[in-house]
Amino acid sequence: MSTSTSGSTTGSAPASASAASASRGLGRPELWRWRVVDIVVASVIAVACALIFLLWNVGYEVPSSILKPLLPGVQGLLAGPWLIAGVLGALIIRKPGAALYTELVAAVISALVGNAWGPLTIVSGLVQGLGAELVFLLFVYGVWRLPVAMLAGAGAGLACGINDRILWYAGADTLFTTVYIVSTTISGAVIAGLGAWLIARGLAATGALGRFAAGREVTARV
Predict the structure, then answer these.
(1) Per-position DSSP letters for 52-90, written without gaps between them
(2) Contact criterion met (CB below 8 Å) for 177 and 165
(3) Given pLDDT bands bounded at 50, 70 and 90, which one contains residue 5?
(4) CA angle 140-125-109, nearest 5°?
(5) Where are the alpha helices (DSSP H) in the chain?
(6) Is the distance from CB of 188 to CB of 80 less than 8 angstroms?
(7) Is 40 exposed, middle or buried (0-12, 13-18, 19+ CB in 10 A)?
(8) Up-side HSE of residue 95: CA atoms within 13 Å toward CB?
């Protein structure tokens, strides 16, 4: 009897662990349900970040002119502000597609208002949003700590660097390509990843995110 009971318990343990894992993974029904408040707040984030994009479209010119002579491609360090929308949107909304939605909508607004890159800005937003989205997917939309935020920013930065190399620097040599992609990846990790995480925590601390898990987590610690 003892052996049989032990075997039954042992056999059921993996099943229980598997069920628990599934309940925390992509099979969670609530994970895929976007509430009205999710759509509204994601859209507000996208509009706010589009304003950052528009300001940085002009503001980056001066630091870029300083960095370019130092080392070919190092101006990629300035890409971060254009990558923040996707990471911030995902950290707050915590739903599949949030990173892609916020980055893409911000890029569409930037393109519609007008900038030097025209409609290709939308392509950049799509690619950069996917770069961040894939990192959150890797963690099955269940880990929202600083290291993951920085990895998502790095993913957006890597996607940005590769996309820019194809669209804008088709004739670039190996040195420029390497430096540029490494620079955009670092910028994404620090400015978009760390920056978005700090912004999300700051907003949560004010109580503005009370209807989101991101807000409840911070207030619970206080």
Answers:
(1) HHHHHHHHTHHHHHHHTTTSTTGGGGG-GGGTHHHHHHH
(2) yes
(3) very low
(4) 125
(5) 2-24, 36-59, 61-67, 84-93, 98-113, 120-138, 146-167, 174-187, 195-205, 213-221
(6) yes
(7) exposed
(8) 19
pLDDT of residue 217: 81
1, two tokens: 């009897």
Residue 36: half-sphere exposure toward Cβ, Cα within 13 Å: 0
pLDDT at residue number 27: 85
Of 195, 214, 216, nearest in space to 86 by CA: 195
Q: Check pLDDT > 80 for residue 181.
A: yes
Kindly state the tokens that stand for 36.
């009205």
Return the amino acid letter for 176.
Answer: F
How far apart CA 94 and CA 142 sit, in angstroms, is 8
Token pair for 129: 């949003």
> What is this structure's pTM?
0.87
User: What digits encode the pLDDT tens for the residues 33-90?
Assistant: 999 999 999 999 999 999 999 999 999 999 999 999 999 999 999 999 999 999 999 9
Could you give the CA distance from residue 70 to residue 101 in angstroms, rounded to a whole number?
36
Is the Cβ–Cβ distance between 68 and 176 less than 8 Å? no
- Alpha carbon 173 to its chain centroid, in Å, reads 29
